[in-house]
Amino acid sequence: MPESTSPLFRTALDRLRRGGALGGALSSTVLLTLPSAAACIDQQSETSTVESPEWAQFEGTRDTRMVSYSGSWWSACSSSNTRYGCGATAIHVKVRVRPVAHADLAWKRVGVVFHTPDNPSDQTAIGSYYATLGDGTEEWHVTMTVPQWQTVVLFDAWYQDGRGHTWIDDNEGELHVVNAGPDYQVVRVEPWMNTITLGEGGVTGRVSVQVADLDYDKELELVGSDDGWQTVQHFGMGAPGDRNRFYWAEDLGSRERWQIDFDLPTTSSHFEYAVAYRHGVVNHARRYAFWDNNGTANWRVDRATPVTR
């Protein structure tokens, strides 16, 4: 591989912060045999902040006309016992591909490359043909097996068409996300750290939130109301020192802590809120939204003293 191409990938992928060597580790349930040779990518040192693309992103051409994640998935326990319950989760995703004429079926493959926030090492899973749809495309099912406590998965879909081409759908570089567990695995309000109160000065104090570090590019929003949701207020992202805006507070490894300091005048007797986390917010990617709304009850703070009029 000419050295001149390496800086291009370094520049393009500088904001990608997930790790993993070329090709990644293989899923324990999949035997991987790919026809194409491993792509040559300069290996980054362990201390480097610049990371290489996984093999499908490096080798493939992005084209959702040829391969695309349908957005449909389901999950099931794949490793259970009487003592520990479900030890692993199988996440099945539906991938659509467009067949090509005169393909060598012995070299046709469909699959995904995936990782979790807690385990950034890329793994490859190969799918199986399911059906041919009315528009001539094929539906394939691909299974990703992950530990029960790591059911938030980021992935791209790839397709080797039997004619020597590799196509990918990596959500415009942002990757797709599936969460086979509760939303609080992605975004979680931390009431034990909150200091938010409602008094004579209105809503003041801090709300602390812990989020899974899916990607550098993310969107956090607190949605609140002080009149029973007749009107809604939106509080987005800012910088430390900003009032009524989320700011980054702390790195927690595979998670991050974000906080928002309120200074919100109101004469209402209560303030309700929920927090949204959105992934895929750049490059016209498909967006994925996750909420912490306190189990549909919303988070709520009541006025400490009665309103005097």
> What is the CATH superfamily label of the largest domain?
Carbohydrate binding type-21 domain
**pLDDT below 50 for ≥5 consecutive residues: which ranges?**
1-51
SSE order, as H and E? HEHEEEEEEEEEEEEEEEEEEEE
Rg is 23 Å
- Outline: elongated
Protein described:
The protein is mostly beta strands. The protein folds into 2 domains: 3-181, Carbohydrate binding type-21 domain (Immunoglobulin-like), CATH 2.60.40.2440; 184-302, Carbohydrate binding type-21 domain (Immunoglobulin-like), CATH 2.60.40. It is built from 2 helices and 21 strands. The strands form 4 sheets. Strands 1, 2, 5, 6, 9, 10 and 11 form a 7-stranded mixed sheet that branches. It is elongated. The protein starts with 5 loop residues before the first helix and ends in a 7-residue tail after the last strand.
